[in-house]
C-alpha cells in the first residue's frame, strides 16, 4: 500500500490524511442502493384531457390604493390524471376533490395502476419453494408469519399485490 493522499489547506501547507479518512471518503462517494417503499398515491381520472377545478378564482384587491393580485386556487389535471401523494400535507386537497360536486361526473377516483405488480400465475407459485415465495413477499413488501403454509403465503401475496389500498 502506498502513501495516503494529501490535501492542501488554505495556507498552502500539506496536511496528511489518515488511511481511515481516505477510506471514509471513498466509501461515502460510492453509490449505495437504497430501498425505499414507494409512497401510496391517490389518483383521479377525468374525462377532459386538461380539466381544471377552481376552489377560488384569482382576484385583484385594492389595499390603500395599491392593487394586490391574489392568485386563484384549484387543481389542474394533466393528460386526464391528477395524482396526490397520500401524505398529511395533501389531505386537505384530497378531501376537497373527493367532495367536489363534479366527482363521478367529470372525474372519478381510480386505483393507482402505476404501482401494479405482476405476480407469477397461481400454478407457477404452487411450483415454487417456500423460500422463493418468501423472497417474493419481501420483494413486494408483503408481511407473512414464519409458520405460514405455502397456500397461506400465496393467498397473502394475491391479497396484498394488485389490490388498491
Fold blueprint:
Blueprint: E1 6-8, E2 14-16, H1 19-29, E3 41-46, E4 52-56, E5 59-63, E6 66-70, E7 73-76, E8 81-85, H2 91-98, E9 107-110, H3 122-127, H4 130-139, H5 150-160
Antiparallel strand pairs: 1-2, 3-8, 3-9, 4-7, 5-6
Helix pairs in contact: 4-5
Mean pLDDT: 76
Shape: elongated
Percent helix, as a range, is 25-40%
List the uncertain runs. 14-35
Indicate the proportion of strand residues.
15-25%
Strand order of the largest sheet: 8-3-9
- The SSE order reads EEHEEEEEEHEHHH
Short summary:
This protein is an alpha+beta fold and 165 residues long. It has helices at residues 19-29, 91-98, 122-127, 130-139, 150-160, and strands at 6-8, 14-16, 41-46, 52-56, 59-63, 66-70, 73-76, 81-85, 107-110.
Walk me through the structure:
With 165 residues, the chain is of the alpha+beta class. Among the domains are: 41-112, no CATH class; 122-160. The chain is built from five helices and nine strands; from the N terminus they run E-E-H-E-E-E-E-E-E-H-E-H-H-H. The chain has a three-stranded antiparallel sheet with strand order 8-3-9, with no helix packed on it. Helix 4 (130-139) runs parallel beside helix 5. It is elongated. The N and C termini lie far apart (55 Å).
Amino acid at each position: 500500500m502506498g502513501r495516503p493522499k494529501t490535501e492542501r489547506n488554505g495556507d498552502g501547507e500539506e496536511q496528511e490524511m489518515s488511511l481511515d479518512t481516505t477510506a471514509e471518503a471513498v466509501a461515502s462517494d460510492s453509490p449505495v442502493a437504497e430501498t425505499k417503499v414507494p409512497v401510496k398515491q391517490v389518483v383521479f381520472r377525468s374525462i377532459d384531457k386538461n380539466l381544471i377545478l377552481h376552489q377560488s378564482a384569482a382576484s385583484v384587491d385594492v389595499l390603500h390604493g395599491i392593487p394586490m393580485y391574489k392568485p386563484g386556487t384549484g387543481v389542474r389535471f394533466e393528460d386526464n390524471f391528477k395524482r396526490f401523494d397520500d401524505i398529511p400535507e395533501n389531505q386537505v386537497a384530497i378531501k376537497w376533490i373527493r367532495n367536489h360536486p363534479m366527482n363521478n361526473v367529470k372525474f372519478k377516483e381510480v386505483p393507482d395502476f402505476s404501482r401494479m405488480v405482476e405476480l407469477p400465475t397461481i400454478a407457477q407459485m404452487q411450483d415454487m419453494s417456500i423460500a422463493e415465495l418468501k423472497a417474493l413477499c419481501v420483494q413486494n413488501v408483503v408481511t407473512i408469519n414464519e409458520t405460514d403454509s405455502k397456500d397461506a403465503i400465496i393467498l397473502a401475496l394475491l391479497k396484498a399485490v394488485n389490490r388498491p389500498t
